[in-house]
Amino acid sequence: MSKLYLGFDAGTQSVKVSVYDENLKSITSQSLPTILRYPHAGWVEMDLDEFLDITVRCIKRCVDDIKALGYDPKDVRAVMGDGIICGIAGVNEEGDAITPYINYLDTRTDDDVRFINDMNLDIWVKETGNPEACTMFPAMFARWFLKNNTKFQQQGVKFMHNAPYILSHLAGLKGKDAFIDWGAMSGWGLGYNVMKKEWSKEQLEILGINEKYMPRILKPWDIIGGLTKAMSEKTGLPEGTPICAGAGDTMQSMIGCGNYEAGKGVDVAGTCAMFCVSTKGIIPELSKKGNNLIFNSGSLPDTYFYWGTIRTGGLALRWFKDNVCHKANDAVYYNDLNDRAAQVPVGSNGVLFLPYLTGGQDINNKKCGCFLGLTLDDDQSVMWRSVLESIGFDYMEICDLYRSAGVDLQRLTVAEGGSRSSLWNQIKSDMLDAEVVRYKNAGGAVVTNCIFAAYAVKDVPEIIPELSKILQIDQSYQPRAENTKLYRDLLNLQRKLIDVDMAPAFATLWNMKKILPQKQN
């Protein structure tokens, strides 16, 4: 009898489900896209039941695949998944979603964030490592639901993230059984004690969030139950298949690329481009107001990390391919863009892209996305390179913060979809003056989930040794000194342009949008 493990990654742009064997060899993988809705300016919503449906469909396809390969669905020993750490919805007594799913791309809580930050409280940084509230924090979404969503006010029982929602429904749990793992818990941003791994009564009282709405905190490998008969019929997996508590996508991606020791850096090049560095705990220099860094705990015990983000980093790439190039159904068009952009000189002929497609996330929240410096000589390839470089410029600032706090970043590991672009990896190496490494293991968070699943059912004694077996370097990119210097000079000019010269223009553009008719649902 073979031993198989099924893992899924419920991300912003898609859900991916994979099956790995006991040697961590990929047996099959299936993926389907998600849908993002934009009902109002600054609002971004998704649907938890759509996440569930997509996952179930992908599981069914994977089960059909393994049967065709001669495996028995009974060979699947456990199911483990990860999902978005900065996003929640409300559920009722049955455990069903009664609100939209709001994630980190949404900025509707901007006014409320300012209200919380005007309190100027020290408890946030002491207990969470995060000195200020942010529009991407689920704690702020929870406040919004409690104030504005009638259904939650009348029927709400718990707040849930997307991966726990999927796992909970696979196991047939009710609303009162809602859970979250100790790593994804820190995705709330506020409302918990990061070192004690528990909700903070004092913080929740300040936030006006009744603790009864908070899910119970579990370890990622805890078994929450078995697959129900109804889900067995839909997925093809045997009834009773163990279901794990799951984890956060960022946490699993970091582990999946070997980042489980202090001082290592990872670029999670997904929808929300994230630049992470592992630490032994809270570093006061990095937890200062104005740094715009988030502090979280990892999936494994005693692991912590900071991350800076460009919310639409990876999404900007998809937006350019789908909306500008009109290649929404051509996934390999990224390769064509990269090949052509590789011929464009450093600095993209003076063309600058600002990747703030859902607004700013600092003091200038009125930022918007735009191209600057275009001439008749420029084309798609120039614009594409400027999109890639724009995210690198923000990364340079984050890297400067890390280094100023004593974190010696000589190597950066790249993970997720963006890591497949050799052009982008070389740009990052040049801009950050650091070696950039990509591992052969393309599974990322999903294969990590399968290792956790094996650990949950005691098929492996430890997680890290199993993971180390498959971490082999695929490609290494070295910084080129002349490009590093040029990018540093360009960064100085770019910051002046954005922070000083463009500030009045952003305000005017914001006012123009306000007088235009609102987009209808």
UniProtKB/TrEMBL annotation:
Keywords: Kinase, Transferase. InterPro entries: ATPase_NBD (IPR043129), Carb_kinase_FGGY (IPR000577), FGGY_C (IPR018485), FGGY_Carb_Kinase (IPR050406), FGGY_N (IPR018484). GO terms for biological process: carbohydrate metabolic process. The keyword Kinase applies. Coiled coil: none annotated. It holds the Pfam family FGGY_N. Gene3D superfamilies: 3.30.420.40. Signal peptide: none annotated. The keyword Kinase applies. One of its GO terms (molecular function) is kinase activity. Residues 4-256 form the Carbohydrate kinase FGGY N-terminal domain. Transmembrane segments: none annotated. Residues 268-456 form the Carbohydrate kinase FGGY C-terminal domain. PANTHER family: GLUCONOKINASE, SUGAR KINASE. Belongs to the FGGY kinase family. This is Carbohydrate kinase, FGGY family protein.
